[in-house]
Design goal:
single chain, 78% helix, globular, mainly alpha, 246 residues
Length: 246
């Protein structure tokens, strides 16, 4: 399983459920996905800078609202039948704002973790992309099946932990603040990294299926979701490491 939105594109077009025989459309290219991903990344960056800069003034409550807003936009973009470039860019802006705000808060408490997390996420993304491009790593059916169950289980665990964290469990860290917090955070980083492999495989499949070029926005959105997830998991892991050394 790659990101659900990317899996949806490949699944529906491979079954022919979105193909109209009378419709003349330009087929998807890898360049189109890259271009849309860059545009989306710019909006994420703008949002992150704004979130970081305004974090002292807006407070944790607003940062939490940005997280919920990003989640809502993510679900809309995932399940919306026709992809909307505006909503994809809006997701990037809002989720970037959340990432910037929470990064500022944690970096204030543990100086340097935000920069380390961003560097780590960027290096991981680039490394996985190179390994995939040279066919050193691949995403086969068994790998995708394992990843599907693992990611779903982890996301359920993370959501439950988030709920407990809102009530102050382990100083607001939820399950991650307990004895196995570093292990749980490490698992999150590994799953997010493996999800990048699945995403690249699904994008390659979408190009081979010659899905309409408009789906480049949906695929770019999917990769953006995975990258932000990887960054947040690394940010949490590094913050927990710094917390354990206090």
């Amino acid at each position: 399983m790659s990101n659900p939105v990317i899996e949806r594109v490949v699944g529906e077009y491979s079954l022919g459920s979105n193909l109209n025989s009378g419709e003349q459309v330009r087929p998807l290219t890898l360049d189109a996905v890259i271009n849309k991903a860059i545009i989306t990344a710019i909006f994420v960056g703008v949002g992150a800078i704004a979130g970081w800069t305004l974090a002292p003034a807006i407070g944790f409550g607003t940062i939490l609202l940005l997280a919920l807003g990003g989640l809502a936009l993510g679900l809309i973009n995932t399940f919306k039948r026709e992809v909307s470039p505006f909503l994809v860019m809006a997701y990037g802006l809002v989720q970037g704002g959340f990432a910037g705000g929470i990064s500022y808060a944690l970096n204030l408490q543990y100086p340097g973790v935000a920069q380390q997390a961003f560097l780590g996420a960027s290096v991981t993304f680039g490394t996985v992309l190179v390994l995939y491009a040279f066919r050193i790593v691949r995403s086969g059916p068994k790998f995708l099946r394992f990843l599907q169950y693992a990611v779903i289980s982890y996301l359920v665990f993370a959501l439950i932990s988030f709920g407990f964290a809102l009530f102050g469990m382990n100083e607001g860290w939820g399950f991650y603040g307990g004895s196995f917090g570093l292990l749980f955070a490490g698992i999150g980083v590994v799953l997010a990294t493996l999800s990048l492999i699945a995403d690249f495989g699904a994008i390659e499949a979408a190009v081979e299926l010659q899905v309409p070029e408009r789906e480049a926005w949906r695929l770019a959105f999917g990769v953006t979701v995975t990258f932000i997830w990887l960054y947040i998991e690394l940010l949490r892991l590094l913050s927990l490491l710094a917390r354990s050394n206090e």
